[in-house]
Task: structure prediction
Amino acid sequence: MIPFLDLQAINHSFGQPLIDAATQTIRSGWYLHGNETAAFEAEWGEYCGAPYVIGVGNGLDALRLTLQAWKIMLNWEDGDEVIVPANTFIATPLAVSQVGLKPVFCEVNFSNALIRTDSSYLKTLLTPRTRCIIPVHLYGQLANLTEIYRFAQRHLLQVLEDACQAHGARSIYNNNVRTCAYSFYPGKNLGALGDGGCVTTHDGELAALVRNLANYGQTEKYIHDYKGINSRLDELQAAILRVKLRRLDADNRRRQQIAQFYAEQFAAEQPAAVQDGTHVYHVYPYLAKDRTRLQQHLQTCGVQTQIHYPVPCHQQKAYADAESVSLPAVEYWCSHELSLPISPVLTDEQAEHVVKSVQSFQI
Result:
């Protein structure tokens, strides 16, 4: 069986350096708020081109804490609105809801499942209470940042990039205004051996407040100015991430090579493989005419697949109280998308078997 994602093989490929990093951290006797976390924050900041990095417990917390900080800084009120694409992992709208804001679910592009950014459409979502827009860099591909920031600046909105699937994706957009939330869940392109996340930003005031909120709202020891939470990137995960970061670009290039091979073999109506660095292929989405039967067929061929995401956020029971909306592109992707195996340790032979298995399917 070709696994959808062989985490054991990925971690084994790092060899002794990963074991040494874990061993040294265990022997150090320092497990939170230590040198490994500080070093990773500095290295990730240099890699991303961001002067401020705040390690937190997971990607949801990275989103949530940023929104909570802006709510405090900018005097947002409960019920103020945040525009969120409905084709995303549930963590994106959950972060909005958990700080008392309202997610406004929006459409994506039929061509790539990324947030729809034409201003004529986004204007239809605006109300006097709109405060922020969250573009999701879905599957590893960057949303149209030029259009998003242009729209946000025109309408005085904050932009929080959900980059939880886009480690290493490069942007030509001006980096000096960007604030991003990352997840280091084990299956990510840059994955820890447990939960982890971070916020990157150029805003020093925002960075300081996010760090305080993540540490019980503490401004100094036992002095709590805010109702914060406990959300920390621990020393062990930081040490692991430091080792893996050294190979991130090479691993992403391997993902791009596999994606290019898939794209060359599959029908023209499939999403095109992007090779300019703006897509790092956390997921390779295949649009299937009969997804259930294709997935069953691939299973019999020894190919494991997954679906991202079968039920869109606006149709989840958790958001049954949200305004009813029709989002045809979102619903199309959620009913047709099938994720094929892709990882830096997938061999050429395995990729060829995946392609032959897909091509042997008869509707």
